[in-house]
């Protein structure tokens, strides 16, 4: 039996057993039974309790072993000490899936953790798809299944929702009942001992009843599987998620800039962005977007037309559009001519189209008919304020008619509360998203447009990276054998060369005479850097000197740097100094690094280099492997991008050279799982070339 088969049995069970069913109202085992009956379940419902008798008119099975072989679904609501044995017995009768509502597992401490591990091992042994433990349960509205202890039965819709928080499930169900929002599937994941977000995405992607997938997560334990399913699903239908725990307060301290800056939240942001998941920050936005995506077609372009009966709201909508990825549509001359035929002379004929305060429903209908015909308009937002003359419900009918007539998305914003309540319900019931204010309406349209662009982006292309892995492994294995975590620059230079990375001409000098000879060979001016496997931050010991222009300066500086380093770090082995060619004038400094995230693997970062990375923290992030498009985007996502592009006549940096280095870093991160963190800082780049001027790596030893 495959996971796909099990999940079908899970959501569409022909027979459901409730282990721990109770005849006492208020107990979980009683609520599950009554919820199943209230949902209209037409399959075989089997309460199980050693006491026997009847529950809600259903005969009670006294022993799990008496249940039908190959049972589709069992809902378990017994104390935690009895759960493992119940699952063992279910496995022996070939049960396909189970929901453990019971709490008291890994969330309760070590004893509960051990119990959950035993439960997980049993499910793997018997091939049981398990939801929970410590969860609210599952609802499949279309199949009449409410295998939960939630209060209330949601209506049917095309929105699927899964959540790691059972308490949030309860609150959202109650809110959805009041807002008349329906669901296709509703799942409380709980502790995710077996079934997790990736499994839900894999199934819901295939589910014909689901148009939009919503999720609330606190953590992802199988990042690679999640990314795979999220990418696949997002290409088919929108996935919208809230990720709780957005601060980096709990992140471990790291020795590199990358590690210090790249908190856990950045990895989730990068994962969502690269897999097409739409991330939101609050539940209201989650359901605003869910209603929009489930009821309206995607806009096929950025051009928004706004129709309003009041100037102020129209300006607010235009301002919101200007701050977004949308554009205010430039109406065609033919459209304006048609509007002038029936709108009063004091109306505003250009976008936003202000049909003025005395507009009636007929004027709304005529205006929307004309706007809808304009090929330059990709989406329409209709604003209404409850003036004395406007016929609110009839205006709503005009908006509904427009939404049904055109294949363009139509949104409404009926401002106010009491007077517009009936019209807003009409619009929502007809599948036209209606908002109280213009800004969230514009945000919904923008999000749908960005999702349209993501769905239609070209398939990712990955660059081939040539490297000498024998040379790389020699350096890494030497450090692992010595249990030396830091691979500092003078040793890491060998890795750079093995990957064919461009670097300034560099020589290791063990004496001042060797330093002078190296400088003469490279050509003045030069840079001197302390070379020590024990000193990772050279500037902390005054270990860098730049713009040395003759032999005397090189000799004296070599002695000063090595003596100072030995004095400040008496435990450090000083190998000498690196002598390096000086950067040409006009270069900018950038940083490329990565940190290995526990959930998602290597997370790359890009930003301005040198001291700027610490001060400005203007950083962009992507998860490896990076495609060519990812490398293109990561450079352009920082706020300081214009400094690299060139201001006031400055030439832009060689972006292609930077992107090649980024692709190499992505490949290196995947090649070397022993490397926890690495950074090229600074990378010196001008309009001609880019060079890795300094490098360091941290290994897991």
From TrEMBL:
GO molecular function: ligase activity
Pfam family, one: Ligase_CoA_2
Residue ranges annotated for the ATP-grasp domain, each copy included: 493-529
Keywords assigned by UniProt, alphabetized: ATP-binding, Ligase, Nucleotide-binding
Gene3D superfamilies named among the record's database cross-references: ATP-grasp fold, A domain, ATP-grasp fold, B domain, NAD(P)-binding Rossmann-like Domain, Succinyl-CoA synthetase domains
InterPro entries: AcCoA-synth-alpha, Acyl-CoA_Synth/Transferase, ATP-grasp, ATP_grasp_subdomain_1, CoA-bd, Ligase_CoA_dom, NAD(P)-bd_dom_sf, Succ_CoA_lig_flav_dom
Protein name as catalogued: Acetate--CoA ligase alpha subunit
Recorded name of the encoding gene: acs
């Amino acid at each position: 039996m495959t996971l796909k088969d099990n999940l079908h049995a899970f959501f569409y069970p022909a027979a459901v057993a409730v282990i721990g069913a109770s005849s006492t109202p208020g107990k979980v085992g009683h609520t599950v039974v009554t919820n199943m009956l209230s949902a209209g379940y037409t399959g075989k419902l089997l309460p199980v309790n050693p006491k026997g008798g009847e529950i809600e008119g259903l005969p009670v099975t006294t022993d799990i072993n008496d249940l039908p072989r190959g049972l589709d679904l069992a809902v378990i609501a017994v104390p935690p000490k009895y759960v493992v044995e119940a699952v063992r017995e279910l496995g022996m009768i070939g049960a396909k899936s189970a929901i453990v509502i019971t709490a008291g597992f890994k969330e309760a401490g070590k004893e509960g953790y051990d119990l959950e591990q035993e439960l997980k091992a049993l499910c793997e042994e018997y091939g049981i798809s398990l939801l929970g433990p410590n969860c609210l349960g599952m609802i499949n509205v279309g199949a009449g299944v409410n295998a939960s202890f939630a209060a209330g039965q949601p209506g049917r819709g095309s929105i699927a929702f899964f959540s790691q928080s059972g308490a949030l499930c309860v609150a959202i169900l109650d809110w959805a009942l009041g807002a008349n929002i329906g669901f296709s599937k509703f799942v409380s994941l709980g502790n995710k001992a077996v079934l997790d977000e990736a499994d839900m995405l894999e199934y819901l992607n295939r589910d014909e009843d689901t148009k939009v997938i919503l999720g609330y997560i606190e953590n992802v334990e199988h990042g690679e599987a999640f990314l795979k399913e999220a990418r696949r699903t997002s290409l088919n239908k929108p996935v919208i998620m809230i990720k709780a725990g957005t601060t980096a307060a709990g992140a471990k301290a790291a020795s590199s800039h990358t590690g210090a800056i790249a908190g856990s939240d950045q990895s989730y942001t990068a994962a969502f962005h690269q897999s097409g998941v739409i991330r939101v920050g609050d539940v209201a936005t989650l359901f605003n977007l869910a209603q929009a995506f489930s009821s309206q077609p995607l806009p096929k372009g950025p051009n928004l037309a706004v129709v309003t009966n009041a100037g102020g709201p129209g300006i607010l909508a235009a301002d919101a559009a200007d701050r977004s990825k949308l554009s205010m549509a430039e109406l065609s001359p033919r459209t304006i001519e048609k509007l002038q035929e029936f709108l009063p002379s004091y109306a505003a004929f250009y976008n936003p189209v202000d049909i003025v305060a005395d507009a009636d429903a007929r004027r709304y209908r005529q205006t929307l008919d004309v706007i809808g015909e304009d090929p330059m308009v990709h989406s329409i937002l209709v604003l209404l304020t409850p003036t004395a003359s406007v016929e609110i419900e009839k205006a709503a009918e005009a908006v509904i008619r427009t939404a049904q007539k055109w294949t363009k998305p139509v949104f409404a914003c009926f401002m106010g509360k009491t007077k517009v309540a009936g019209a807003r319900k009409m619009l929502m019931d007809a599948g036209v998203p209606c908002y109280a204010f213009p800004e969230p309406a514009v945000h919904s349209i923008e999000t749908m447009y960005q999702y349209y662009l993501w769905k239609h982006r070209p398939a990712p292309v990955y660059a081939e990276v040539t490297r000498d892995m024998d040379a790389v492994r020699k350096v890494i294995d030497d450090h692992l054998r010595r249990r030396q975590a830091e691979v500092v620059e003078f040793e890491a230079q060998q890795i750079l060369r093995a990957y064919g990375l461009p670097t300034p001409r560099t020589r290791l000098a063990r004496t001042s005479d060797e330093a002078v000879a190296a400088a003469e060979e490279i050509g003045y001016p030069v840079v001197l850097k302390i070379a020590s496997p024990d000193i990772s931050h050279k500037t902390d010991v005054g270990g860098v000197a730049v713009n040395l222009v003759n032999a005397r300066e090189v000799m004296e500086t070599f002695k000063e740097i090595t003596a100072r380093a030995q004095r400040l770090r008496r435990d450090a082995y000083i190998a000498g100094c690196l002598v390096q060619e000086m950067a040409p004038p006009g270069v900018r400094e950038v940083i490329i690094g990565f940190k290995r995230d526990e959930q998602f693997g290597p997370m790359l970062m890009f930003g301005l280099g040198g001291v700027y990375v610490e001060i400005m923290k203007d950083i962009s992030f992507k998860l490896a492997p990076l495609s060519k498009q990812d490398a293109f985007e990561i450079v352009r996502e920082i706020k300081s991008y214009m400094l690299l592009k060139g201001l006031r006549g400055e030439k832009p940096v060689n972006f292609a050279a930077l992107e090649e280095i980024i692709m190499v870093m992505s490949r290196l991160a995947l090649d070397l799982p022993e490397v926890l963190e690495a950074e090229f800082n600074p990378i010196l780049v001008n309009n001609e070339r880019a060079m890795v001027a300094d490098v360091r790596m941290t290994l897991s030893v």
